[in-house]
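debug: dumping io for the single-chain case to check the tokenizer round-trip. Nothing else runs in this session.
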Amino acid sequence: MVLAFDTLGYAKRLRDGGVPEPQAEAHAEAARDYIMVELVTKNDLAAAVESLRHDMDARFENVHLQLDVLRRDVDAKIERLGLQLTIRLGALMVAGLGALAVILRLH
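debug: decoded output
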């Protein structure tokens, strides 16, 4: 958005303050050409903030999707490890009962 800058009013204020006319006009033109082009308005800032919010929302959505995938992967691995532990415990119990049976037969 382009801001209107009153170079005449600015130069007049400088002249009224004791600045010589050529310097006041040069200062006013320099302010218009080099300072005013760098200023932003509330609307500019609001648009930038909205753009950033949109980008952040999209990135957070992506992060949430990635976390959901990782959570499902971890849940599946935990389930698989639980089953493996159950099978190993069962195998140990069978081996232990078999060893107990052999020991009881030997006595």
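debug: round-trip ok. Residues 9 and 28 are 9 Å apart (CA to CA).
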